[in-house]
Amino acid sequence: MPDILDDILIRPLSDVMAAEVVGLDLREPIPADVMTRLETALNQYHVLCFRNQSLSKLEQIEATKQFGALDVHVQSNRSSDIPLIHIVTNLDENNQPRQTIAAKGSVHWHSDKSYRHAPSHATFLYALEVPEEGGETEFANMILAFEALPSARQQELAALKVVHSWPDSVRRTNKREATDEEKANWPPIAQPLARTHIGSGRKGLFLGQHASYIEGREADGRGLIDELEAWSTQQRFRYAHKWRVGDLLMWDNSCLIHRAAAFDGDRYRRLMHRTVTQGPVPR
Ligand SMILES: [Fe+2]
After folding, report:
1. CA–centroid distance, residue 111 to ligand 1 (Å)
2. What is the CATH classification number for the domain harbouring 15?
3. Which of 64, 127, 203, 217 is buried deepest, with most CB atoms within 10 A?
4. What protein residues have CB closer than 5 angstroms to ion ligand 1?
């Protein structure tokens, strides 16, 4: 059932997660009662799509701040003149689309900055140019995936910790060694494998590309992680967001993993601006 608050409509986009928010201009301050409704909706749907936005970079930063303290980007994009905005694109310095510079790391399932002691809470991705085909952002609902497991299995997994590691992630994904600075900033960090979602108290699996091994079972590598990731990314736990220009998508990294679907990067243009908010230490 759509939920109408004044002239703002919140409408589910699938049975698994995600709702669209229509009638809200994020350039304006969000009234307290609307913010309460949005927070409830985020806890329920985990992905909110604010339709028909028109935001400059600075306006996106101000809009993001209404939901929480901004997180700085660790790898500031070379083409962004404002470090708090990360540019996600396949466009080169001459503004031409190139398959070779489509964001490669994003094609793997991940939770943003899960390798940090306190990972990002919400990610905000604002679409300025979108491909006609492909380029969806896909999500998997880690709470539903966990709750669908037999209860004995849930208890077993809830006793485990998973080590997220930036150095291991870049070695596997980017085929390079982390720099000394990266190793010092983001050493491997043990987190609960079954993470408690603050907004609902429910547990969800905390996995993704940066997950390296189960604490105490380093020799097994990603064996169990890969098995649980395959389980969690079944179609019944998934939602794929088909982008429209003007969408600002906000999602909760604490209970989702996501990835970018492929598209023809030599033919189509994809340009998005990303901001993130700070999150708590997972429990
Ligand atoms: Fe991401």
Report:
1. 6
2. 3.60.130.10
3. 64
4. 112
Q: Cα–Cα distance between 98 and 100 in angstroms, integer?
A: 5
List, for residues 108-155, the tens digit of each pLDDT value: 999 999 999 999 999 999 999 999 999 999 999 999 999 999 999 999
Tokens of 187: 């050493």
Domain that holds residue 244: 1-278
- Please give the full DSSP string across 154-171, using - where no structure is assigned: HHHHHT-EEEE-HHHHHH
| 6 C-alpha to ligand 1 centroid (Å) | 33
CB atoms within 10 A of CB 271: 17
Strands 238-241 and 189-192: unpaired
Is residue 283 in a domain? Answer: no
Q: How many Å lie between the centroid of ligand 1 and the Cα of residue 114?
A: 10
d(CA 187, ligand 1 centre) in Å: 20
The total number of structural domains in the chain stands at: 1
